[in-house]
Amino acid sequence: QSVGLGLECRTSGIPMNKGNEMIFKDPIHGTIELHPLLVKIIDTPQFQRLRNIKQLGAVSYVYPGATHSRFEHSIGVAYLAGEILKSIREKQQDLGITDWDVLCVQIAALCHDLGHGPFSHMFDLMFIPKARQDITITHEDLSKQMFDHLMENNDGLLKYMNYRPPSNPSEKRYILYEIVSNKRNKIDVDKWDYFVRDCHYLGMKNSFDHERLIKSARACEVAGEFTIHCDYPYQHKVNCAIERMINDAFLKADKHLSFGGKTLSTAIEDMGAYTKLTDTIFDQILNSTSQTLREARDILKRIVRRDLYYCLGEFPSRRSQQVIEVCLFECKCKIAFLTILPISLSQVYSICWFERFEEKLHRIYTKRTDKDLKDDQDAFEKFKNNSYKKKNN
Fold first, then answer.
1. Which residues are catalytic?
2. Its Gene Ontology molecular function terms (predicted)?
3. Nearest 5 degrees, angle CA 178-CA 183-CA 187?
4. Where are the domains of the chain?
């Protein structure tokens, strides 16, 4: 069985002997070897689309080097999944981890991000909740649907695999289900790869030694939980502004773009159409001449000119006077934009909430940058003061 995708590998037709692996050169992990079946999955249109989906969304507008994609991240996660399982198997042979177990977990690792949309989390956390208020869906749900689509449209893979819902694992083998995404203590190869890879492309120093963790990893009961701290670039106020602007442009363009008969927001209902959704939609809108896309195009032109939504200020929750500037790995940077109603300039403001441990940081933006912002700053101070009064009452 695989992890999360309900996959079972057949024992016939797949060469498992040493020497059949394909060799890749990865800037993070160096020379890596992948099973031929993983390469067959990589060489599908559904997986190749990840080349055009940036790992960090719009962060490259703030950190120019952060242009790496979900494509290389997914390959890195698959590699690390194999390495840690092989390391555990060598030290704890009583667990009965087989080559098939390793391969299936690697397939799950390789495919875990198949469902990401344009600009990654901006699409599923901002655009879809606003454009499709009739449904609730996550990129994990979309990954499962995209994996189904990949299997159904690539006959060469079907002879190697059976596809069925996963059964309940025994306690001894539950570790197989925690390699890619660990809900228990958050220690998993997905985080290991994106932490090291993101730091590399962001130009940030990194002292996290995942190789040492792999060599020392064991399957055991742990009373406490490990946590890893880092500065998170998603919280950068300029990135927040740009992602909101892209979201606004997508909302304006939604009904005027067609992907196999589906709009931008309804493409999630058809994986054939969804396969066409990547970061390239930005350029598609920006370079269009259609009058129906004018409003969306104008917003994206502002990004290109660096005429961005302006951050008037920010303030922390009153629950603590200390502003915590780091984010635990297990804390997703959940971003939600809400319209501010109490002030007169309600139509040009948005509020951005960030999870920081148990803190919330309130950050206020104005869309207007073409005039003196004194009135806007005064409105922000009024809103901030009113917020403090409400909390104190």
1. 139
2. dGTPase activity
3. 65
4. 7-230, 234-392
Q: Which of 106, 124, 250, 231 is nearest to 180 (CA)?
A: 106
d(CA 67, CA 185): 29
The residue to which tokens 């394909």 are assigned? 22
Nearest CA to 306 among 368, 371, 242? 242
Helix axes 139-152, 99-111, angle to 10 degrees: 110
Residue 58 · residue 119 · CB < 8 Å: yes
Whole-angstrom Cα distance, residue 233 to residue 239? 8
Task: For 365, list phi and psi in degrees, rounded to 5.
Answer: -120, 150
List the structure tokens of 360: 């919330």
Cβ contact 384:313 at 8 Å: yes
Residues 62/201, Cβ–Cβ less than 8 Å:
no
Segment holding 54, helix H or strand E: none
User: Tens-digit pLDDT profile for the chain (393 aa)?
Assistant: 334 444 444 444 455 555 567 889 999 999 999 999 999 999 999 999 999 999 999 999 999 999 999 999 999 999 999 999 999 899 888 888 888 889 999 999 999 999 999 999 999 999 999 999 999 999 999 999 999 999 999 987 766 665 444 555 555 567 788 889 887 767 789 999 998 999 999 998 887 788 887 887 777 644 433 322 333 455 678 888 999 999 999 999 999 999 999 999 999 999 999 999 999 999 999 999 999 999 999 999 999 999 998 887 776 655 433 332 322 222 233 333 333 323 333 333 444 444 333 345 677 788 876 666 777 777 777 777 776 555 555
The CA distance from 343 to 338, in Å, is: 13
Question: What is the three-class DSSP state of 193?
Answer: helix
Residue 27, class by beta-carbon neighbours within 10 Å (0-12 exposed, 13-18 middle, 19+ buried)?
Answer: exposed
- Would the pTM count as exceeding 0.85? no
